[in-house]
Amino acid sequence: MPFQILPDQTKIHYIQSGNGSETIIFVHGNLANTIWWEKTLQKLPSKYTGYALDLPGSGQSPETGKRHTIEYFADLVFEFSRSLGVQNFHLVGHSMGGGVSQMLTLKHPDSVRKLVLLDSMAADGFHVLYEYGESRMQFMKKNKDFLDKAVRAIAPRCLDEELMKRVVDAAFCASEQVFTEQPVTMHEANWMHRLSEIKCPVLFLHGGEDDFVPKDGSERTAKAIPGCIFKYLPNCGHSPLLEVFDLYFEEVFGFLE
Q1: Can you give the pTM of this predicted structure?
Q2: Whether the predicted pLDDT of 71 surpasses 70
């Protein structure tokens, strides 16, 4: 499995597919990792080169000792792209990764060609896990059965049992910071007032049955982005890339084309 060493010596694990002229970077959400993007990369159209990375503390990327803010992750993904020699790219972010992708687009507008948000956290923060409480998140970190139920609840229509087992196993190995700090930093985040600065084409997909990320926050965020295309995906919870793959793939790559 390849790793990329960033200028500050941060070690980032990633997976890569394709050798096309257009680059896509995929950014995972909280308690997720590169496993979530494997099928997408396996089916990547030939015109693209795709990269999915593990954010620090998730998957195989070690912790860095830095606070897990949305802005820090956005800076890290940008440095990851530069370390690969990629100057511009399409950006696809799921859940917390959607927030990271919004922030990166705001900070580096000339680098992002098109932006895709999948059940993204709202630009004025995500509060569900913060309100859930640190003690419960700590318990989830220590109790795999409890975590298993929680992870399956955010991909309720995923029928691939082997994939779900791998997803849960990887989530259980995430760092303490992932479980207890990221809910706080997502709660604190707010860049809603800056969304009018986004000028690239944006597609925002939201599972029609997503009970995890509030729909009003997604609609609020989409309306604040000039020209944003917003769609609900039927028969889908929080994780279209795991639950309704064919529909998700058709929508995303139809937009990127």
Answers
A1: 0.97
A2: yes
